[in-house]
Amino acid sequence: YTAVDAAEDQVELCRKINAEGTENIAKVCKELDIKMMYISTDYVFDGSGTAPHPVTERPAPLNVYGRSKLLGEQAAQAVPRHAILRISWVFGLHGNNFVKTMLRLAERRTRLSVVDDQIGCPTYTVDLARLICQMAEQNAQGVFHAAGSGQPVSWYDFARRIFDLAGKEIELEPISTAAYPTAARRPLNSRLDCSALAAAGLTPLPEWQDALARYLQALEEEKV
């Protein structure tokens, strides 16, 4: 369950899917001695400070979705052999994401306001899939963070890069989170410390700028 704002009203449904559903899988993994991998989120953190969140930081989610994912993490940790992978700002070919939303809005608007005080690193699903396969092959265990490498950016900066690469002439206005109220509170700092990957012999993700260029190319190829 990933509808962050809707979760504020659908608390029980979100909990059943992300927490109870994960707990059911964890129970089977324990009974059959199967390793469990759980995909989590930067939303388990409160987004305080400006430093990247290390894997050892104590979670403190701000919203219903984040709390449900933390419960899922706790269920996975009950499995003797487990891996937890926290990811952030994900975009890919399937489903909705920020890149698709920006491109869609650019088709009917010439001016957009985008939040400039939430900071993170965009992450491409193709790169994540390769990492997940590597983690499975190398039997990686423990808690890991994965996000696109490179300089962290705001949603405003990310949007600017999207439009530059897509050749879109859009006037962008930076605004604060307070000026764009949503049902769910969101962390201002979504930077993730991904150093545990290299320490475990795993390959860090490519720079998000390169990933975005590859993604936009893949979107164009889908149209053909």
Describe it.
The chain is of the alpha/beta class. It contains 7 helices and 9 strands. Helix 1 (11-32) packs parallel to helix 2. The radius of gyration is 18 Å and the shape is globular.
Low-confidence stretches: none
Record the strand order, biggest sheet: 1-2-7
Assembly context of the chains: single chain
Helix content: 40-55%
Element order, helices and strands?
A: HEHEEHEEEHEEHEHH
- Alpha-carbon distance between the termini? 32 Å
Mean pLDDT: 96
Give the class from helix and strand content and strand pairing: alpha/beta
Strand content: 15-25%
Q: What is the number of E strands?
A: 9
The main sheet comes to:
3 strands, parallel
- Apparent shape: globular
Rg, nearest Å? 18 Å
Count of helix runs: 7
List keywords for this structure.
two-stranded parallel sheet; 7 helices; 16% strand; 3-stranded parallel β-sheet; 224 residues; alpha/beta
